[in-house]
Amino acid sequence: MTALVHRRVLLKLSGEALMGDEDYGIDPKVLVRLANEVKEAHDAGAEVALVIGGGNIFRGAGLAEGGMDRVTGDHMGMLATVINALAMQDALEKVGLKARVMSAIKINAVAEDYIRRRAVRHLEKGRITIFAAGTGNPFFTTDSGAALRAIEIEADLLLKATKVDGIYDRDPKKHADAVRYDRLSYDDVIARNLQVMDTAAFALARDSKLPMRVFDIDEPGALLRILSGEAIGTLVAA
């Protein structure tokens, strides 16, 4: 087994990460690749929890801008995260892992209710635990849900998977001279308005002294290398 520096982690994936080259929905090839990344970490001895956004299916904030009631839109967005969680559960089981979906809203026909002690027990038993429906409350993003769940399960590290290799001072896809940071404090991120996650998530992590690493999910093997102690991407810490 690989020597791990971080044993219990929470991996935050955007819903868009599941689209691959598609314009909408879920690309099965992406699910398989992500499941194999998680399996590699699990087989090395890591306890892995997941939070997945719902932006590939539905964005509550977007419809709210178009006139829909924000609370209704956010509840619809929570259901989108449940769909993604079930898809990821299926992909994980197909590569031989045991996985559980725990929802912050009651949807017992397809997912367990989120109960903190039960979630920790799943992780201790080697089950990949997927937290769906954000915090269960409107006006909070899945970024905030990921920070909250990571704190509750006492994760060693919160991993934010993106399509770039860390946090930059500006969008590297639009600016060739963008500068990547190796390390930042939470106060730096908030003060500079570096919007890789929402401010509430950063504030939660800061107040609980939870370290976060932002990295490129498309880099093969990056998850296990981070858990083994490699300085990939950008570290955000106190």
Describe the structure.
The protein is of the alpha/beta class. Helices cover 37% and strands 19% of the residues. The strands form two sheets. Strands 4-3-5-2-1-6-10-11-9 form a nine-stranded mixed sheet, with helices on both faces. β1 (8-13), α1 (28-43) and β2 form a beta-alpha-beta unit. The chain is globular and about 50 Å long.
Q: Segments where pLDDT lies below 50 for 5+ residues?
A: none
Largest β sheet strand count, sense and barrel closure: 9 strands, mixed
Proportion of beta-strand residues: 15-25%
Mean pLDDT score: 94
Oligomeric nature of the chains:
single chain
Termini separation: 30 Å
The helix content is 25-40%
Shape: globular
Give the helix/strand layout.
Layout (H helix, E strand, L loop, with lengths): L7 E6 L14 H16 L3 E6 L7 H6 L4 H25 L4 E5 L8 E2 L2 H9 L3 E5 L9 H11 L4 E6 L4 E2 L11 E2 L1 E3 H6 L7 H9 L4 E5 L5 H6 L6 E4 L1
Parallel strand pairs: 1-2, 1-6, 2-5, 3-4, 3-5, 6-10, 9-11
Antiparallel strand pairs: 7-8, 10-11
Helix pairs in contact: 1-3, 5-7
Summarize the structure.
Helices cover 37% and strands 19% of the residues.
Quickly list its features:
238 residues, alpha/beta, nine-stranded mixed β-sheet, two-stranded antiparallel ribbon, 8 helices
